[in-house]
Amino acid sequence: MMRGLLALVLLLPGPAVPATADVQSAAEFNVRDYGATGNGSTNDDDAIDRAVNAASAAPGGIVVFPPGNYRARTIHLKSNVTIRLDSGATVRAAGSGMDAPETNPYDDYQDFGHSHFNNSLFVGRNVSNVHFDGAGTIDGDGNLATSNSPPAGAGNKAIALIECANVSLTGITIRRGGHFMALLNGCHDVLIDNLKTVYAENGVRDGVNLINSWNVTLQNSRIEASDDAVALKSDFALGHTYTSRNVRVRNTTIYSHENNAMQFGSETCGSFRDIRFDDITVLGAGKAGIGMVSMDGAIIEDVRYTGISLTKTTTPVFMKIGERRRCPGSPPAGRIRDITLTNVTGTGLTAPEPSGTTGGPELTSTITGLPAVDIGPGITLDGVKLTVPGGHPASDANRVPAEFPTTYPPRDYGTRPAFGIWSRHVQGLSVKGEMRVDENDDRPAFIVDDGSDIRLDVTAQRGSGSAYDVGVSGIQGYAVTGADTSGGALRVRATNSTPVPGNPVSLYGEAEAAVTAPMQVQPDPAASGGSYVSVAPGNNSQAAAPSTGHATLAFTVPGPGSFKVWARVIAPTTSDDSFWVRADGGAWTSWNNIPPGTSWHWAPLPVTYDLSAGAHTVTFAYREDGARLDRVAISSDPSFTPSDGPAPPSTRYEAEEATIARGVVESDHAGFTGTGFVNGDNAAGPYVEWTVTAARAGTATLAVRHANGTAVNRPMAVSVNGGPPVTVNFPGTGAWTTWANATLSAQLGAGANTVRATSTTANGGPNLDHLAVTGP
């Protein structure tokens, strides 16, 4: 009866953040008073245990470690104790003599490190009100094993806490923690605040593992490891599981040099719900930045990621349902559902370190279930903006990765057929965001195979040789809206799929996409793509339908509907102008009475086309010369009002990567992009010259990001391709850490161009950060 009552009490909700010790009123127990030497060679653990026992009996005493190096074998934690590591105090693991690992009848369900706890530097089992505090360090000192088979007498964890309550780790640093820096299994009401874990090659695997735990807050910390940095797991080492719930990870920097930054699993016997990750900076992940696998029957649900920044991450997002069945009863596949990612950004996603441990071959974000078990519903990515390395040929779009039901690393699937997100066996997937590449990639941005209720509202960069932007196969109910990065309509390849019934479709296309003479493309920074289409004077077809001079736009319609046509135009003449328009090579319709004006505006055409799902064209020709055509929209939504669309994308060229004459690269003033900025000599003549690539000839906008901490203007002469220089003023910005943009327009040629900024006075130029080029 008592055992059942205890189980009931443990399931009652507790506070999200436990109370910490009252350090002002509690009695202090200095470990030196109990015989500790702090000399770094004598084993002090017996003395430390005596201090722990005394503090626990107080109760609520503080075990004080003054400055020194305290060599220790296993230290045994008791209830109602605070471990205070003062600045300059380090507890170092002994190389031998650690407690032997306890026997565990449930060894078969997880690896050795998860199954055994006694062989740790600090160990606490069934204790409560235990706190670590201070500015000192716990250091495995290279003596804590990282393998699954540690030698006899060796430990493999810095801190192990098993079925504990009201625990906190605040302020301390953990170095070289062995297999786990901190492993908590079956604990609740836990606060981890301002914890720092330090990566040391061959000295650590996992950072913080929260296993079968609930009411946990991890915040304001830096967690760095070689293996999983922050992991939520549910193994069977205790002989039972708890639901992991009410876990909050926020305002924290996370770095995994070889594996996953934020990870669910792979041990997933128990379920997870009500988990939040907020304001997280991921500095690296050799596997996944955001990783989630259910391999052993767990249900993972109600998980939210908000404000996540990813860099040096091999796989930005990886979600998978597997069927490893490594839990009692060989459970069938679990579920992953109700997962939301909001405002997740990723840049510089593969940048290998010298050792090659982070980065490596890029792997596309992946969301996949099993042939018999879909992932979802409720998989939502909102405001997810990823810039991936790219560089793949169109032939990679034909790859069909195998199923891997019993393994979980992202690398299993190899190169994915899409560069942005590849998804398979999924229901209820919604994606809003942007997918771009650093290097041209001819795979589509998205591929979704086998599923239902798929909704994509995205901006996707298009490879120069890509056949389509979005591929759906075997999807019952899909809707695709958005545009490519030039504002053109997304091209959808649908196979054995049906669109969402009644879902309105709105698509855009640039007029300059396909033009035949005498139609011509002209530059204009105010046009959405940096240029527009006009007809050479004297070439018109006033009386009859035209036979030459067309601008043809291609649209791929995801579902049938009645589509109205809009055009963004200017008629810079003194009288009305006119077009001819037709769909799919059909009959021409005259569009008359375009009023004159000098500003771009959207005008509805007096035509509506009934279009089936699939590829279509809308073609324009001029009845009268003079009018200009920028872009076109078609929509099956009666309430649709076209917009000017996304701003043309800009390309950034760092100053420190340019040609520098009489200047140095520095990084002592914060706020710069890239790796630094250029500080030129205080003289006339120093310059920075960028090589800029333009997809086509035309007018571009150049923005020079700079800082001038003086009150004196520092003008520079900016020349393009050696042409006549233009003087650009760079007045004071208020401080050397305050950066601003100076902009100008310039004509670029197709291909490589040079842009040189040369100081013209004895004061020299400002500090130069980068050049951003928009258009043509």
From TrEMBL:
It holds the Pfam family CBM_35_2. PROSITE patterns: CBM6. Keywords: Glycosidase, Hydrolase, Signal. GO terms for molecular function: hydrolase activity. It comes from the Bacteria. SUPFAM superfamilies: Galactose-binding domain-like, Pectin lyase-like. Residues 1-21 form the signal peptide. This is Glycosyl hydrolase family 28 protein. The lineage of its organism: Bacteria, Bacillati, Actinomycetota, Actinomycetes, Streptosporangiales.
